[in-house]
Each structure stands twice: as C-alpha cells, then as structure tokens.
Design a protein that fits this description.
Uridine Diphospho-n-acetylenolpyruvylglucosamine Reductase, domain 3, 29% helix, Aldehyde Oxidoreductase, domain 4
C-alpha cells in the first residue's frame, strides 16, 4: 500500500544518505550538489543537457530484474526531487588524488586528455557509468557513451586514446596509425609515438566498485510513497504511485500541470524561455506508464519509458521489424546518452516539436496512442495527418494523460526507412527529418500503401498525404522519382522567410531524402524480385554515414640518450593539474566557496538591436525580497563608464541585442535573475539595423580610422607587366568561442578600500587597471587573481571585464562579496566571437604559376564596438601570403560597424582567415593554368633567405621541408589516385583530398607586449614556489615552466609548485595569448633560476658533495635572499629593424573528406 510523504526526500550521494526536509521542486541536482553539498567537481556548462560537463551517474534498483541499473545523466536538468530512492555518484565519489585515483581518472589525465579540464569530470563520469554497465566495453559503446560530452580543447583524440585502453579492441589494432609509413618500420629512432605507458596504469577491477546502498535495495518503501513537495513560490512536485492519482492531478490543474520524466524539455523552458510551471508531476512509479511489452498488435511502450530503455528492449529482440530498426537507428542520433537515459517517448510526442526525431517515424508508422482522463476514461488516438494541430499542439486534451504508444506490426511486403539531417550527426537538433513507409502488393513492385512524413518543413510534423496517395497503385521504378519530386515540391512549400532559415536546403532535402529512400528500397526489391532498378554507381547514395572508429598517432621527438632521466624537458609530461581536474578537485572561479554574506549580480540586457533608451525602471525589481541594488550608467561618470572603446553600462543607445543596460544585485542567483527580468526598459527603435557585412558595406558603416591601408607595396607596375591577373572573393563566417566555463567573476571588498577580484580572465593586469579606473582607486588597491580557466581561446581577454567590472562596482558600493557567472545564452549574446571576413583580392602571376603581386581589400565585421578588430585585421594583413612568397602586397582594411555583439580575439587572431585566402588563390591559379595545385605550391613556397613583403628576412624557413615530408608521410599521391577512382565509381558520394601549408609569425603585434616577469621563492626546506604573469587555460604553460625550473635548478618536478596568477605577485603582465607564453615566461623563469644559482654558487663550491637542501639552509643562515624576480623581453624584435616576428612556425597537413551529395552530410576519413 502506498503512503503519502509530504516532507522528506531521501537519496544517496557518493554512498552518503541525504534526507532533505521540504525540498525545493525548482532546484536541480547540479545546484544542490554545488551549493548544498559543496561538491563542485560537477560543472555547469550549458544548463540544457548539451555539453556533458555536469554528468553524474544515477543508480537504481530494479525490483523486477533484481538488478542495480546505472546510467549517466545531466545534473543540470535532473530535478533533485526526482531522486527519491536513488543513488547519485559524482566525480568526487570515485577517487581523489589524496586517497586513490580511479582508473578512469588516471587514464584520461595520463593520456593527456585534460587540458583546460572543465569538461574532464563529465568525461570521467560518462566513462565510469559505461564501465559500471560493461567492464570491457567495445569502441562502439565508448563512442555512444561520449556522445553527450563536448570538449573545446583536445579535439577528443587524447580522451579516446586514454579510454580506448578499457575496450575489447585495445591491443588488437595496428600499432601505429602511420601504417607502412611508420618511422620505426623505416628504421627511424629519433621519434616516438608512445605518449603514455599503458603498463603503468592501475588495472580496472569492477569488483572493487562501491556497492549500491543496501537500504535502497532492501527497502521498497521508497517506491511506494506518494510524494508532494511545495516551495515558497507554491511550485508543487507530485510523484504519484497509481495512475488514478495522476489523472486526478491532471483533472484539477489542466494545462498548468506538467508531466516531468527527464525534465529535458520543461527544464529548458523554465531556464531559457521564462516559463513558470506551478504543478509538476513525475510518473516514474506508475506501472501503466512504464511498461514495455510486445502484444499481438505490436510494440506497446509506456509513455514514461525512456529512450534508452526502448533502444535496449528492441535490440534484445530477435525479430525486429523494419519500423523498430528505424527507431533504433534514429535513437542513436537522438541527443546524447545522458538525455536518452532519462527522456521519455511520451515527452517527445506531447512536446510536439516540428523538428522531433521520432514523430515522423511514429506518423509514418501509424502509431496509436492510449490517453486517459479522470472524466472521460480511455480513448485511442491515431497519429495521422490530423494529430498535430499547430505549433507544439496536438489532439491530446488538457485533462488527458498519454499512457502508452502502440507501434503496429509490419508485414513482409512492407519497407520502412527514416532519416535525420542535422549540422552534426551526434547530439544535435534536426534540420529536416523524414520517414517513409511503403507496402507493396505481394511479390510485386506495385505500391499498395504509402506514408511519407517530414519534420522541419512546417509548424508541425506533417504527412505528405497527396504525394502518398499519388503513389498508390504505381510501379516502383525510376519513372516514379520525377512524379514524386514534383508532387513534394507542390505539396510542401516553404516560404523564404520561414523560421529556421536554410529554406532552399530544407526544400532540397525533402527530395534528396525521398531519393535516398528510393535507392534503399530499390536495393531490397532488386534482391527479392530480381529487378534491376539500381546501377552500381547508385549504391553509394543508400547508406548514411556512421561514425568511424577513431584511430590516431602522434609523433614526438625523442630526447637524446645522454639526457639524464631526471631532466623532464622534451619529455611528454602530463598537464600539471590534470589529476586534480580528473578528480574534480581543481578549483575554478565559480568553485570558490561562497562567503556567508555573499551576493549575486544579474545583468539587465538590451532586447533591441538598435534603439534609443527612453527609460529604465527597476522599481518593481527592487521591491522583490532579497534584492539589494540596481546599477546603471546613471551611477557612473562618463569616464568611469568607458573602457575598451565602449560603455560598460549603455547610457543612451542600445547598439545590439544583449548590450548591458544595468545590473541587479540579490541574495542569490535565482532571486537576482528573476528580479532582472522585472526591470522595465522603454525603447525607441532606430534604423538601420545592420547585421551582416553586406549591410554594413551598403550603409558605409565604418568604425573610426577605417578604411586604412595597412600594407602599401608598389604593385601597379607588377599588374601592368603581369602575364596573368585574376580577381576574386573569399568569405569566412564567424564562430562562437564556446569555452565550456562561461564568464565568471567574484569581487571581495577588503579594508582600506582594497578589492580582491577572482576572474576567469586571460588578462588579470588589464582587468586590474580597468577596475581601478571604474572605482577611481589606485591599481595597488586592487588584486586580480586567476587560478585557471575553463577554456579561453581569446574570448576571455577584454570580454572578461564585462562580467568582472559590474561585480567589482557592486562589491565596492555594497561592501559585500558579489559573484556572477553568465548563463550560456547570456555569454553568447554579450561576448561576441570570431570576426566574419570578406576578402576581395587581385592577384598577378606568371604562366608558370609564380605569384608576383597581391592586392587585398579586407572587410571585417567588428560588431558594435571596435574592441580588438583593428588588431585582428592587422594580424591578418601580415599573414595574407601565408607560406608563399608574394613579393608585393597591398592590403586595405575596412573595419565595419554592425548591430551585433562586439567581436574580439579568437584563436589565431586573424591568421587562419588570411591563410585561407592564399590557399584559395593557389587553387584558382592552378585551375586557370590547368596545372596541379601541388606544383603551384612548390614554386611559391618560402625558403630560407627569402624576404617577406614587410621586409623581414627568413633566416630559418622549413616550409619546403614540411611540404615534402607531408606528401611522403601521408602517402598523398597514392591516396589522391584512390580518391579519383572512388569518385569515378560512385555517383552520390564523393571524396576530396587536400594539402594545405601554414606559416605563422610568433610575437605580439605590439612590441611592448613582448615582455614577461616571474617571482621565484625558495623555502627553507628546499621547495620552490613560482609565480608568473600568464594564465593557465589548458595550453600547458604551467608544466612547461615547471620543466624549465626543474632542468635549470636540477630539482625533481615534485619539489616545484606554481600558484595562481595574481597581480600582487607579478605586475603589469601582458594578455596571455599569441602563442608566446612559454617563450617569454620561460625566459623570465630561467633568469630567476640563474640568479638563485649564482647566489648559491659559493656554497656549492665550498660544499660540492652537499645536497640542494643543505645549500639552501647554509645560504639562509648566511642571510642570502632566496627570493628573486625574473624578467624577459624578447630581444632583437620590432618593425624598425624589419623584424616584427621573433620567429616563424611552419606546418603542412593533408585531409581526406567524403561528402554525401544528396544531403551535404560529410565525414573526415583521414587527416
């Protein structure tokens, strides 16, 4: 008999029992872990189940199978109230650096799979959950387990390499990914590919895992309790045990009642769409909604059954029908495993999204739904053309509950295929989905019945009724294609202003996906009826891409045999905090424990792209409980409010959607964010609204000092005598930084007007000066600290101030600590990204293909403010020729102002965009001259002794060496011939292979930035502490500095430590970027070490057999300073000596890609 529990929620976390009295229905597991239990290893990356940073393992006891079930889940979506009777395991619960590392933690760290480390705990927990279900998984299972986890640093290679060691396949693969080109096969001894030693890993022993809590296993009371929890906003969480309770709940509350299983839709609606649901019901214990069985009529699935449970059930069947096979295939691409583990099929149907992955299959299958209400009882609804009644609407009544779904049986004459096209195959929403269900008259190719369903082509998922009707009675042959294509064009129009864009592409997909279905079914009919509908060249259009099993190798130079084993330089040492990142012990800015009197700041953002601000009214927000202040431009002088060519708080004109208008400060994040939404802003729309580069060019919308000629060689004479001239354009889009850790800051006021700022910034010193200016304080009153970043990529340079400065101001004014962490949508609206570029070029070249002069006009979308866009385009100008010697260049910069977020520094800083131009030009010249572009490259590549167009001498150039080596090691010529052969044999899939070269100049563009400082302390017992001015953000700077100190002082790495970057340790440090950190800080720390060694020299001479510790003690008692600074300024550099770059890096790469010509889907076959 069920009982009612209105107060206590009981669950376990890492083996510890948690009893929560009157839990809050609106709190997620992630917030509970981080704020209540202080388990900050689980990270917040997106709040919508898309990145996997918050992955935990959930365990429950299945009383029907008498087994414990383990599954990964997103803590950011999981309501804490849904955990009654369940066990949660976080990254802290499986191992730590102090006690014992779990093998999944050890292997990702030692395989170099953790860089910035913000994604690492989620990766660890996805792998851990997999191992708890399969102690020796396959590579396919590993791939599926990682579908819902994103990483922005590693490119996934080292993560997969580390976790591959757990799989069945490990040890059976080719030793080296280079194959016959392996350097060891060819006798090479100078390089190696072993980045970690597998034999040193702790073996995985599944018998040593923690047991499931016996209380949950032996006591079934948790399954039989009706739960009801209500918070102070009257939001109710209701978990009934019997269906009649749920029907009564739905009858009482109607549309206000939301059924929550995985919270994958409701959670997103509440967080990002401002929905406010007061009545939440969880049907996890209702038998009728959780059944999964085969009946005489078909497969019956309870509405609350999860997608993973459906997939596993169907795969366990020995006689899967064609519809069931299509469901399993589609589920593989449905979100990530964390979402599929908790999301229900009923939720997918009731949500009625027009881009649902499953609804087209259910429509085409003719699925039947059983719904019930307390008032009217049961009824059956068929999913047909009338089921979806409008955008996210359907025939299920407000008082009805979806109980189950019946997927009908099929017969041997039935053929069913389904497709999903998205921007990427895994964990992405669909652009267009389609399902095709055709039944033929027995032993013929005559169509007896047809159902065609599409998602993404209207406000609802639709059936192409007219087309299907037209097909009935017709023969299945090639004549059918034209008939169906014309009918689909007529039946499924899509206006050019349709939501979602990509209109032409989406319309073409309806035809392409039908054609793929035609090819697939024709293949089956050819076999069964001995028809000859297909040719061999057609067959390539049948199969959709599946992910290739990743295989890779990375070669590095061996150290010389005479290098001491204790010398770590040049050895593949792991990231200095990789182990802490893998265990969740590494502290990021938002992991810093909250102060007792701490407040939270939420920004008020513009909702208009271009508008005059008439008024800002925060009165209603300030009336809310727990709200302390509202700040805007009115609280600052004009000078205080201005930094980096823009206002902090917009005063008069909102220049883009997401511009900061003000800030609300409250007791906590929830209160502050809710109050911020109550701030009323009155606007007056302004014209024009400029979004694209084309808009800006048409409107002549320039930033100051634009256009500007950045490079001005004399080129007219070259053009006049040129044998060939060609003009063209190259366009490149923007890109979001998408660092996993969003912008975050914490400001703590001290006495004497001091302020301490913790920030996820790449430039603490710049932030220090910005804060000093804002607060009208001397910089010596402000200390900025940064331990590590969860990714930066340039996006946490000046943009970090947009988070840190408001909290600094609020903390200073209120005399209380204040914190902020941008939500993912806020971060993307506020911070901008990579600049979109449009290059117009004119190139002259000889009949042999030698380039002689280049003229470029570069248009760059800077966004609403200049920020660093002028510097980005300047960097592009110096790399416009890439690795190719073009003697004369003229480069004109057009920095365009648009009503979009201000674009800024992004990895490469304009260099990749410029290099793309020269690579494009090389191929255009080859096309014009009808030559091989490889030959054009060869005669244009820089060589030692050449002079770049800006007059710098290349005294050590390796471009030609890289070029020839990549042709050999990649087996380029043979692979190119194979590509041509493949393309001649396949009509609908084509391959391409391409070689590209790069040459990058290393140095800050501004000469004064090429400097670095360190602070080095030696303590009395001999340990060394180093502080430097750069920021560790995953690039491995700290381990390089540690290696340098270890080698210079001849000390083990374990005796050297690097603390956080702080402006009171090393002042005036430049931004961490431009790939110069290890160069300049390495130079600085060498100087510091040499100073210490010089001071110790007399004692080493007197005591040659003594130890380091002895020398330190003697020096100390002799009153010798064991602390010093080191400073380095890059020598012999600057435009005045024709050497703006310190040196150049060179590289070449070959990529082989395959594309599906019908859909645009593609895969990289080999890099």
């Amino acid at each position: 008999m069920n009982t009612e529990n209105e107060k206590n929620l009981v669950f376990f976390v890492n083996g510890k029992k948690i009893t929560e009295n009157e839990p809050d229905p609106e709190i997620t597991l992630l917030r509970y872990l981080r704020e209540k239990l202080k388990l900050t290893g689980t990270k917040l990356g997106c709040s919508e189940g898309g990145c996997g940073a918050c992955t935990v393992m959930i365990s429950k006891f299945n009383r029907e199978t008498n087994k414990v079930q383990h599954f990964s889940a997103n803590a950011c979506l999981m309501p804490v109230c849904a955990l009654h009777g369940l066990a949660v395991t976080t990254v802290e619960g499986i191992g730590s650096t102090r006690d014992r590392l779990h093998p999944v933690q050890e292997r990702i760290a030692k395989a170099h799979g953790s860089q910035c480390g913000f994604c690492t705990p989620g990766m660890v927990m996805s792998m851990y959950a997999l191992l708890r279900n399969s102690s020796k998984p396959s590579m396919k299972e590993l791939e599926i387990a990682m579908q819902g986890n994103l990483c922005r640093c590693t490119g996934y290679r080292p993560i997969i390499e580390g976790y591959r060691t757990f799989t069945k396949e490990f040890g059976n693969e080719e030793v080296c990914g280079m194959g016959e080109k392996c350097c060891k096969v060819n006798g090479g001894k100078l390089v190696d590919d072993k980045l970690f030693e597998v034999s040193e890993f702790v073996p995985y022993n599944p018998s040593q895992e923690p047991i499931f809590p016996p209380e949950l296993k032996l006591n079934d009371q948790f399954d039989k309790e009706t739960l009801k929890f209500i918070n102070d906003r009257d939001v109710m969480w209701f978990r009934p045990i019997e269906l009649k309770e749920l029907l009564k709940f739905k009858q009482e509350h109607g549309t206000a009642a939301k059924i929550v299983v995985g919270n994958t839709e409701v959670g997103v609606e509440v967080k990002f769409k401002n929905f406010d649901y007061k009545f939440l019901a969880n049907p996890s214990q209702i038998r009728e909604l959780n059944e999964l069985e085969v009946t005489k009529d078909g497969l019956k699935i309870g509405a609350a059954v999860t997608l993973t449970e459906i997939e596993n059930f169907i795969e366990s069947k020995t006689d899967q029908n064609v519809i069931e096979k299509s469901i399993v295939e589609m589920l593989h691409w449905f979100a990530g495993s964390q979402v599929r583990n908790v999301a229900s099929i009923g939720g997918n149907i009731v949500t009625s999204s027009p881009i649902s992955d499953l609804n087209p299959i259910l429509l085409a299958a003719g699925a039947k739904l059983e719904v019930q209400s307390l008032k009217d009882g049961k009824r059956i609804i068929k999913m047909d053309e009338n089921f979806f009644t409008g955008y996210r609407k359907n025939l299920i009544k407000d008082n009805e509950i979806l109980v189950s779904i019946l997927i009908p049986n099929t017969n041997k004459n039935q053929h069913f295929v389904a497709y999903k096209q998205a921007k990427r195959r895994e964990d992405d929403i669909a652009i267009v989905t389609a399902a095709f269900n055709f039944t033929f008259k027995s032993n013929t190719n005559i169509i007896e019945d047809a159902k065609i369903a599409f998602g993404g082509m209207a406000q609802t998922t639709i059936l192409a009724i007219k087309t299907a009707s037209l097909m009935k009675g017709k023969e299945w042959n090639r004549k059918l294609i034209e008939i169906v294509n014309q009918s689909l064009i007529d039946e499924i129009p899509l206006s050019f202003d349709a939501p979602g864009g990509n209109v032409v592409y989406r319309r073409s997909l309806t035809l392409s996906l039908f054609f793929k279905a035609f090819l697939s079914i024709s293949q089956e009919l050819d076999k069964s009826l001995n028809l000859n509908i297909l040719t061999d060249r057609d067959r390539s259009g049948i199969e959709s891409y599946q992910n290739l099993t990743p295989k890779s190798s990375q070669l590095f130079e061996n150290v010389s045999s005479d290098q001491p084993l204790t010398d770590p330089v040049h050895r593949p040492k792991i990231h200095s905090s990789a182990l802490q990142q893998a265990t969740g012990e590494a502290i990021y800015c938002d992991d810093i424990p909250k102060h007792e009197n701490e407040l939270y700041l939420s920004l008020v953002l513009s909702t208009k792209a271009h508008a005059k601000i008439i008024s800002i009214d925060a009165s209603e927000a300030l009336k809310q409980p727990g709200i302390h202040a509202f700040y805007s431009a009115k609280d600052l002088t004009k000078d205080q409010n201005y930094f980096m060519n823009e206002e902090l708080f917009t005063s008069e004109i909102a220049t883009n959607q997401g511009r900061i208008l003000g800030a609300i400060v409250g007791d906590n994040q929830i209160k502050a964010q809710r109050a911020a939404k109550l701030v009323k802003v009155e606007y007056e729309d302004l014209k024009p609204v400029i979004v694209t580069l084309e808009d800006a060019i048409k409107q002549k919308s320039y930033h100051e000092n634009s256009p500007t000629i950045l490079v001005n060689c004399e080129i007219e004479s070259e053009f006049q005598k040129a044998e060939n001239i060609f003009e063209g354009k190259v366009r490149l889009g923007g890109q979001e930084h998408f660092y996993l850790e969003t912008q975050v800051a914490l400001a703590i006021p001290k006495d004497s007007d001091e302020l301490e700022i913790f920030s996820s910034t790449q430039e603490p010193a710049v932030l220090q000066n910005n804060a000093a200016k804002l607060l009208r304080l001397a910089a010596n009153k402000i200390v900025c600290r940064t331990k590590r970043l969860g990714g930066g990529f340039g996006g946490k340079q000046s943009r970090a101030s947009l988070a840190a400065l408001p909290v600094a101001f609020a903390a200073y004014k209120l005399k209380r600590p204040v914190r902020i962490m941008f939500d993912r949508d806020e971060d993307m609206m506020i911070t901008g990204g990579r600049n979109p570029f449009l290059f117009e070029y004119k190139i002259s070249f000889t009949n042999e293909g030698k380039m002689t002069a280049l003229e470029v006009k570069a248009y760059v979308n800077a966004g609403y403010s200049l920020e660093s866009s002028d510097l980005v385009v300047y960097k592009a100008s110096s790399h416009i020729t890439n690795a190719y010697n073009i003697p004369k260049v003229r480069f004109e910069s057009h920095v365009m102002k648009t009503n979009t977020p201000s674009n800024n520094a992004f990895r490469g800083f304009g260099i990749p965009e410029a290099q793309m131009v020269s690579e494009h030009i090389i191929r255009e010249i080859a096309n014009i001259l009808k030559k091989d572009y490889i030959e054009i490259m060869k005669i244009n590549l820089f060589k030692t002794g050449d002079v770049i167009f800006y007059r710098q001498l290349l005294d050590d150039c390796h471009s030609i060496r890289c070029f020839h080596e990549i042709i050999q090691t990649s087996n380029f010529k043979e692979r190119r011939a194979n590509v041509e052969k493949f393309n001649s044999e396949n009509r609908w899939k084509k391959r391409g292979i391409s070689l590209t070269n790069v040459m990058c100049g290393v140095a800050y563009g501004a000469q004064f930035l090429n400097q670095a400082g360190v602070l080095l302390h030696v303590y009395l017992e001999g340990s060394v502490l180093v502080s430097h001015g750069a920021v560790e953000m995953g690039q491995g700077l700290n381990i390089k500095i540690l290696q340098i100190v270890s080698t210079t002082l001849k000390l083990p790495l374990e005796r050297i430590h690097i603390q956080e970057t702080a402006t009171d340790k090393v002042p005036n440090a430049p931004t961490t970027g431009a790939s110069v950190g290890s160069d300049i800080y390495g130079g600085a720390v060498i100087e510091a070490c040499q100073i210490i060694l010089k001071r110790l020299a007399p004692y080493k001479e007197k005591m040659p057999n003594a130890s380091w510790d002895d020398w330190i003690k003697v020096a100390y008692f002799d009153r010798v300073s064991l602390s010093t600074t080191g400073f380095y300024a890059t020598p012999d550099i600057g435009p005045e000596i024709n050497k703006p770059r310190n040196y150049f890096t060179h590289g070449s790469a070959v990529s082989e890609v395959e594309i599906d010509c019908l859909t645009g889907d593609h895969q990289v076959n080999k890099n």
